[in-house]
Amino acid sequence: MEQGGYTPKELHFAQEGQTKLIEGINKMASAVKSTLGPMGNTVIIESPEHTHGITVTKDGVTVAKSIALIDPVENLAVRMMREAADRTATLAGDGTTTAIVLTESLVLSGMKNIKKGDNKTEILRELLTETKGVIKELGKMSKPVNKKMLSDVASISANNDSTIGKIIADTYNKVGENGIVTVERSQNSDTYSETTDGLKIDRGYSSNLFINNQKKDECILEDVHILVSDAEISNLLTIENVLKPIIQDNKKLLIVAPCSTNVINTLAANVMKNSLKICSITPPSFGYKQHELMQDIALAVGATYFSEKTGDDLSIVEFKDLGHASKVIVNQDSCIVIKDKKEKSKTVDTRVEELWGAHKLANKKPDKDFILSRIASLTGGIGVIYVGGNTDLEQKELFDRVDDAVCAVRSALLEGILPGGGLALYFFHKKLKDKIINQGAGNKKSKSKKIAYAILADALRSPLVQILANAGLKESKIYPPENVVLGLNGYDVKNECYGDMIKMGIIDPMKVTKSALQNAVSVAITILSTDAIVTMARSYENG
After folding, report:
1. 194-342 — its CATH code?
2. What is the pLDDT of residues 104-122, one digit of tens each?
């Protein structure tokens, strides 16, 4: 409550603040980590935002987002751990639960191992350095994926649902390595996929006011017309001939053109009033590359390309000059265009042939790579997985799992895969334990290294230990000290057997594991370096 022109604050120092942080961390982690692994449990969440007021899920990020604690310091810990999960989800699309498990272990181990008088700054610096080393070694361990592995990655991420895994893998195999896969809700109880032609533009919306899907921070337009130009729209009167039929007939429009701030604000204001269904994105790239990419976009959607470079006057553009797509999905970073379901354009085929010819003649690698990216844009497919369910509750839970699994496959295609079940990180836990023994005594720097190694070693074993715990198993029974973990070999908790994790289909995307570890360490270092906490003063009168 504001009093006398200022807002009162509460201060928390040293042990008091750390104790509260630990309580918040434990509460958050306890709720989330029970979902980890093939034997993970479901969590029931009450929320007025969902159908029937509840959500039943095994999705770690959904659980994490639902948690808010009364105590302000405890809640700060929750928010910081959620940040590790959110960053991981943003970068890799999956691994949120792993990020939270790692963060909890790092913080608790740090508070246990860092004593009064230790050089905390040096320890945390060594922790960050060693983490980078582990990530580098994980990259060396990573293996490229094949078609069978795609199904395994998707199945594991979808909570070991092999049916979903097969649908996702088949969809990716159909659209090719340059294709895009999206997830939508089905109009019936069936879950299935469809593929169509489409392209991805590496530019997002010019204003977040264009967003019409708040959950995913996206602007989604169906049956949409498309204007393509590199000429700046500085005044809406310039495109009056286009806007009139759009407004009059309640049509939808995607503008792929540079727009002045005034134009963007005016369009956004009208979108907010629900008088316009429109979105704008800036053209991709710069220079000659922009001109060629814009030509490709116009060709793909059947639009007339108006370019300043060729002396075109944007004021003469008419409705007939617009292209068309069955759907566009625009987020902060990119725009996916799903083309109309009709025969492939012969003009597109001709352009692709021309580009392959140019690729053969190109001498420099950057030029060759640019041409290949253009070919990929024109030939890549779009896969849509429609998620069904007998009830809204069932459909939502399945949708979250499928969405995570699609992101996991995308990450695996980008950076390869690692042995799953927490084994890859556990392998480096073993190596760090050896480093601690070999470090020996010595100067203060050696002591800081040993403490950092101990903190990280504890964390690297935590995902595997939690997966075992959720299956009712103990680390000492499954991985006794005398059992040396070599590379890929580990324990399958679902089928209760040892073997090569990759051959058994128990795999994790490298990008997911890397992102979870990086973000967990980043948040943990912030928490461990905190000695004072300032929160807003609370009043709990009248309940």
Report:
1. 3.50.7.10
2. 999 999 989 988 888 889 9
